[in-house]
Amino acid sequence: MLILTRKSQQSIQIGDDIELKVLEISGDQVKLGIHAPKNIEIHRKEIHMAIQEENSKAAGASAELLEKFNRQMRRTSDS
Amino acid sequence: MKINTKYQGSIEIADSEIIRFEYGLPGFSDEKRFVISPFAEGTPFFILQSVDSPSLAFVAADPFLFYKDYDFTLADSAAEQLEIESGEEAAVYAVLTLKDPFEQTTANLQAPIIINHRKQKGKQLVLDDSPYGTSHLLIIQPSQLEREG
Prior knowledge:
Distance between the termini of chain A: 61 Å
Radius of gyration of chain B: 15 Å
Strand content of chain B: 25-35%
Helix content of chain B: under 10%
Number of strands of chain B: 10
Order of helices and strands of chain A: EEEHH
Oligomer: heterodimer
Strand content of chain A: 25-35%
C-alpha cells in the first residue's frame, strides 16, 4: 500500500481524473472530498462490502428452495 | 439464443431482452449481461439471470409489495448512466436472500436493482446515506402465505 502524509486542504491526484482532498480533520474523523468522473462508483467501504456479501448470500439460494416457496405462494393465491 | 439458467432450465432469449449492467453488480463485476423474468405465474418472484454464467441468478421482487413506503433518491449520475429521463422509466427490484422458512427471507433495500427497460440498461444502486440496510424481513400479511406441511 502506498502511504502519503497530507495536511488539511491538501490533495492527492489519482490518474488524470481523480482528486482526493482532505477537507477537515477533527479528532479521529477526517472529512474527504473526492472529484472523480461520474462512472466511478464511490462508497463507504463497509457499505460496499456489506452489499457484496449480501449479493453472494442471495446468489446461493437453491432451486429447490425457490420451488418450495413458489408452491407456497401459489397455493395461497389459489385459496 | 439459448441460455442455460439456474432456476428455469434452458430458455430461449432474444438479444433485445438482454439488459446491460455496464459495471456488473457489487461482488460480480464481470457479469454485465442479464435477463429478468417472472419465475412463474402468480408469484411475486422475478429471476435476474446472468446470460454468461448459468449458475448465477438472483431472486428479486417488487419492493413496494412488501414496503409500501420504500423510498430513495436516484442520483443524477445513475440516472444518466441508465439514460432514465423520468421516474416512470425506472423499474425497481429488490434482491431477496431466500431463507427457510420463508418468513426469514430478507430483501436488500440498500442496494435496489434499477432497470431502464426502454434502453435495457441496469444497475444495482448502492445507497450510502440510507435508512435501509441489506437484509430486511419481508412484511407479509399472515393471510398472504400459508406454511407448507
